[in-house]
Amino acid sequence: AQSVTQLGSHVSVSEGALVLLRCNYSSSVPPYLFWYVQYPNQGLQLLLKYTSAATLVKGINGFEAEFKKSETSFHLTKPSAHMSDAAEYFCAVGVANTDKLIFGTGTRLQVFP
Amino acid sequence: DTAVSQTPKYLVTQMGNDKSIKCEQNLGHDTMYWYKQDSKKFLKIMFSYNNKELIINETVPNRFSPKSPDKAHLNLHINSLELGDSAVYFCASSPRKSGNTIYFGEGSWLTVV
User: What is the predicted pLDDT for the residue at A87?
Assistant: First the structure.
């Protein structure tokens, strides 16, 4: 069965600091991996996705993630945090041969001035 | 134009009532979903439909009945509401192909009192 694990339910950074949100996956087949962001009282918006074309994936708002098969990881990074990045971030894996996503438990990012 | 729209956004109702949430997508996608997000932000798929046909039913109580009149609409009817049904319900859609992005609506905040 496929799954994702997000390490750290809360991450706090200062404005301008590096953002690192961790996601590890479990999959017996090459996975499709996604990062979504949820701002307060809003729906989920796709940040980026990995579909085996390139291991370093660039997304919106300056975020990127690197697929590392040896570490079964797909961590999300941003070089310099902005106040507007404060939100809940979800890692997800696409279940093989289906249309569904399995989500991690989410990481709340707080950005301090 | 909103890609995936759902109504109402907020709904407060008493235990035992029956309520519906409507969803429409204008993306031309074949597959539509209902996801539930609980108070701890955990997201889980409830149903998926492809071209009006039920594909996924994740052991949801049969008080929950999805209905898809056409491939652009997927409504969720809930009978005999319980306190534990309080959650955010997200409608979503995607082209039918494993690994495709799922696009989410803004969510419907249901509170059962």
Answer: 97
Whether residue A97 contacts residue A27, with contact meaning beta carbons closer than 8 Å, is answered with no
Answer left, alpha or beta for residue B71, where phi above 0 means left and psi between -120 and 50 means alpha: alpha
- Contact of A83 with chain B, judged by CB distance below 8 Å, is answered with no
Q: What average pLDDT is seen over chain A? A: 93
pLDDT at A34 exceeding the cut of 90: yes
CA-to-CA separations, A10 to A19, A35, A90, B66, B71, in angstroms, rounded: 12, 16, 12, 34, 38
Please list, in sequence order, all residues whose beta carbon lies within 8 angstroms of the beta carbon of residue A90, skipping any fewer than 6 positions away.
A6, A35, A36, A37, A38, A44, A103, A104, A106, A107, B43
CA distances from B45 to A17, A69, A103, B87 (A): 34, 26, 9, 13
Of B91, B92, B77, the closest CA to residue B13 belongs to B77
Q: Which residue bears the tokens 């697929």? A: A67
* pLDDT tens digits for range B17-44: 999 999 999 999 999 999 999 999 999 9
pLDDT tier for residue A53 given thresholds of 50, 70 and 90: confident
Query: Hey, of A67, A99, A102, A103, which one would you mutate to test binding to chain B, going by the most B CBs within 10 A of its CB?
Result: A99
Q: Cβ contact (<8 Å) for A42 and B107?
A: yes
Q: Name the residue type at position B32.
A: M
